Amino acid sequence: MKSFNYHAPKDVKDASKLASSNSAFLAGGMTTIPSMKLGLASYKDVIDIKNIKKLSGIKVSGKTVTIGATTKHVEVATSKDVKKAIPALAKLAGNIGDAQVRNRGTIGGSISNNDPSACYPSACMALNAVIHTNKRKIDAEKFFTGMFETALKSGELVEAVEFQIPEKADYQKHPNPASRYAIIGVFVAKHKKDVNVAVTGAKSCVYIDKDLSKKLSSSFSASAIEGMNVKSSGMNSDMHASAEYRANLVSLYAKKAVEAC
Amino acid sequence: MASLVGSRVERKEDTRFLQGKGRYTADINIANQTYAVFVRSPHARAKIKSVDTSKALKSSGVVGVLTGKEIAEDKIGGLIAGWAIRSEDGSEMKVPANPPLAKDIANFVGEPIAVVFAETLDEAKEGAEKVKVDYKVLKAVVDPAEAMKSDAIHEGVDKNLCYDWLLGDRKAVDEAFAKADKIIKVDLINNRLVPNAMEPRACVVDYNIASEEITLYTTSQNPHLSRLVMSAFGGVAPENKLRVVAPDVGGGFGSKINVYNEEIVCSWASKKIERPIKWVAERTESFLTDTHGRDHVTHAELAVTNDGKFLGFKNETIANLGAYARVFGTVTPTYLFGPCATGVYVIPAAYSNVKAVYTNTAPVDAYRGAGRPEATYTIERLVEKAAMELGMDKTEIRMKNFPTQFPFKQTLVHTVDSGDYVAGLEKAKQMADYAGFEARRKKSEANGKLRGIGVSSYFEACGIAPSAAVMSLGCGVGLWESAEVRFNPTGQISVFTGAHSHGQSHDTTFAQIAADELGVPMENIDVVHGDTDKGTFGMGTYGSRSLTVGGIAIVNACKKIVAKGKRVAAKMLEVNEDEIEFKDGEFVALKSNKKKTIGEVAFACYLPGQRDEMKSPIPEGDEPGLIESSFFDPANFSFPAGSHICEVEIDPDTGNVKVEKYTAVDDFGRIVNPMIVEGQVHGGIAQGIGQALHENTQYDETGQLMTASYMDYTMPRADNFPEFNLGFTCTHATSNPLGVKGCGEAGAIASPPTVMNAVIDALGGQEISMPATAEKVWKACKSMKKSNAKAA
User: What whole-number distance in Å separates Cα of residue B731 and Cα of residue B490?
Assistant: First the structure.
């Protein structure tokens, strides 16, 4: 690992001031630290945001669940409030990585990194989340822009994620047997007016499967999407799974999620 | 006194391991040490045009940089192949030089080219980045099946062929095949595995300028052998100036048998830079450079009669050696593979033909089971397929071809001393509720799942030793084992063994057997291993040999202690030696019932000041002290055997395979510690299930290892396994006085075909290669659906 300057600011303003084109915010460090250790990334300044109290915590209001950026996966997984308001979100957090990852990894880190096979982005998309940063509020569908790419600008820091509480929801993933990231993950959320089916792992970036969402919006039942042919074009094909296999899984796991709702 | 042999004694070593108090190589630090980082080839095959170290030498904290040029100038020898195998035409195998640092050409990704020593690890890494190597990249040879048609990667090794070896009689096989009703054929790939010991390789070298002694702390399964090789072939230092210590070692599975480049380079360099050196592999370095296992491409045939009798067997295999032939690299796919490929069956005619090829991949060597898993996979896939094609029950066809007389002269090499294969399979059937399978299959079917059952019966030749036998097969050394039992004057005992424990629990099992022999509490016994300065010599631990060879040396040394003790006790008790009986740690004069404990006798042997005693307790002709050693060279290999049965359930929608039940019945002869043996079987089965369902080493066509981290290489985990159902049968080995057989590898040998037979059974006989990953199985399920639809 190359040497760097370590900063641990107490508030967001200071954190933002320290940021530059050659810096990284550090929360759980579940991606940043391995990347630095492997020499894939190096920074002049590493800005640890874990001491900023305001960035951590879970708030449930009538219609939304808001989770602070540095809230750990284990906290979301075990939160009584989250379990009551959006049990699917707690379930998703409880199946990320392994116990060690869940004890350090954070929601803000996960979505800012936007790994194409991360779990949280699918929840953001399906639950019409609004991403609160130190500069603005961004709708989830505009936040995730590409593989490891987001709408975040230099010095911009995710402060919290505000999820809309659905009527019903469930998340199902087919884990990569080696890394246990999602080969594919499907988050189905039934809102008052419509249904969102968000898919992670299948393509270079999380997306809403419009066909599945439409079908389920008109009839929310597993039979409505039974045998539906999800197209494999544009899907990832690698040594862990072909595009064809991923397409099969998306259709299958969407059905499983609806059944579990 | 109750016998300790046979009891579930808790492991002595667990106290330190479970409390984080183990002392591994990476835990050792020497004052003033430097840190080594190796510059490794990023290419699978490339000419090294030049190596420029000038910038690295100027880098902050860098103490020295050494390359293949310097090590060649100092005439330091390279890595060796330990077994000489001859081709069918009588020619010697072709073995290219394997220098510790590549000078002219790099032959696999990760091969070391240069090394940088610096004051800190970060400075060494930074320095290594500044070593500039100019490569001319060449087309890599990766696929073993294509290697013989590709460019020769080593000068003088035509067709990349190390040898073309034959065991058996082609003519007799042809005749047998001509008489057959049916020929069963399989084409198999035995997938390459990365051993993945929990502790990555490491070494710490301390050069003593005053005495000119090198002390090498290293992650080795056989420190004495490492010293011998480094001294005799490496020329690093004379043996008496080289001390090799392998302290606690966190798993080896065969990958730590070899003396590796890094140990040779650091030992040589420590003397050169006159500083201690520490090197610890990162996980990626382990993936790239630890010797890998398996990697066979096999076509095999079994000639059978309509009523299921086996007449003949043939096996044509291409074995991938990787870039270089290492210590057990050449014997693993020949004598450890070929003889066992006819399995536990009476087959009148057989041959195994193996072509071993070089490719631009990591060297392949022994990995838990070494050759015998590949052999068992070959024959057990054939037998299962034969049962299917003949419409016979898969256990019945096996029973029909088992030998019933022991010793059993196996077709190709071995004479198996003892066993009862029928009893083993019967017991496995009963424990697995084999008869109830159909009901369970129907239940799975009703839930939309496919259920399959697989059987495999195996034997293996382990306890790798008989020197005469192994040397006749091409081994460069005799494979006996030594022990020394040292009774200290105050009664504690040190047992020195040449075997090495890196997970095998020698501290416990060896203490159990010594305690029984000497009639003392096992707490009084310390087992000492892993240091060439302690104990006589040793061949190390691999091939399930520690107990069957090393353990017996301990027994024999103990017997010598007791024999001398008897003579001393007789003199002390003033009776004749033949009037003394040794029992439960006491020498008893039969007539008078006077006695001396073994502790008292030991004390007397050291001649302490014996006031008022005029006579020495040492009989005439004996010397003071109570230390005995033994070198044990057994009469034969040891031949554990057994039958395993597995049931899997497949979800045809995802292709996920769940191992529902796993039953193993093994015959390990007499069992010293059932708990430890069960642990060995569990570990072996887990590794075998890993090979069958999960572990998928992949190189791309340029020779880059695609699965070089745990993000991509699937290790099996606890939730991949059911509770294992273990049973034992027992026929004593006749080749050693304890009647024990090796148990360390059996699980990994028997389980891959057991699991694959179950998967293929669930798929209605459709062939599928290892690992049976979800996507592969899903595809097979799809084509099964299609063909079912067609049939309907």
Answer: 40
**pLDDT band, residue B273 (cuts 50/70/90):** very high
The Cα of A36 is separated from the nearest Cα of chain B by a number of Å equal to: 12
**Chain B environment of A249 (Cβ under 8 Å):** 654
Domains B14-138+202-280 and B139-194+292-401 share a fold: no
Task: Give B694's contacts in chain A (Cβ within 8 Å).
Answer: 177
Question: Are B674 and B8 spatial neighbours (Cβ–Cβ below 8 Å)?
Answer: yes
In the CATH hierarchy, which top-level class contains the domain B481-632?
alpha beta
Residues 6+ apart with CB under 8 A from A181: A97, A115, A117, A118, A175, A201, B711
Quote the DSSP letter at residue A203: S
Mutate to test the interface with B, among A174, A239, A253 (most CBs of B within 10 A): A239
Predicted local confidence at residue B609, as pLDDT: 65
CB contacts < 8 Å between A and B, how many? 39
List pLDDT tens digits, range B326-368.
Answer: 999 999 999 999 999 999 999 999 999 999 999 999 999 999 9
Instruction: Tell me the CATH class for A168-260.
Output: alpha beta
Question: What is the pTM assigned to this prediction?
Answer: 0.96
> Which fold does the domain B14-138+202-280 belong to in CATH?
Aldehyde Oxidoreductase; domain 3 (3.90.1170)
* Multiple choice CATH, B139-194+292-401, 3.40.1550.10, 2.60.450.10, 3.40.630.40, 3.30.365.10: 3.30.365.10
**CATH class, B414-466+636-792 region:** alpha beta
Say whether A178 and B775 touch across the interface (CB within 8 A).
Answer: no
| Cβ count within 10 A of residue B2 | 7
**Residue B329 has which token pair?**
């690299």
Give the pLDDT band (50/70/90) at residue B477.
Answer: confident
User: In 3D, which of B549, B565, B570, B547 has the Cα closest to residue B487?
Assistant: B565
- What does the domain layout of chain A look like in residue ranges? 5-164, 168-260
The helix/strand/coil state of B228 is: helix
Q: Is the dihedral of CA B661, B662, B665, B668 positive or negative?
A: negative
Give strand pairing partners of B630: B483
Q: What is the pLDDT of residues B432-470, one digit of tens each?
A: 999 999 999 999 999 999 999 999 999 999 988 888 888
Angle, helices B372-390/B746-762, rounded to nearest 10 degrees: 30
CB contact under 8 A, B775 and A239: no
Residues in A touching B706 (Cβ below 8 Å): 239
Q: Is the pLDDT of residue B99 over 80?
A: yes
Question: Is this prediction's ipTM beyond 0.90?
Answer: yes
Is the pLDDT at B1 greater than 80, yes or no?
no
Architecture field, domain A5-164: 2-Layer Sandwich (3.30)
Mean pLDDT of chain B: 96
Q: What pLDDT digit, counting tens, does each position of B729-761 carry?
A: 999 999 999 999 999 999 999 999 999 999 999
How close, in Å, is residue A126 to chain B by CA atoms?
A: 24
Is B280's pLDDT higher than 70?
A: yes
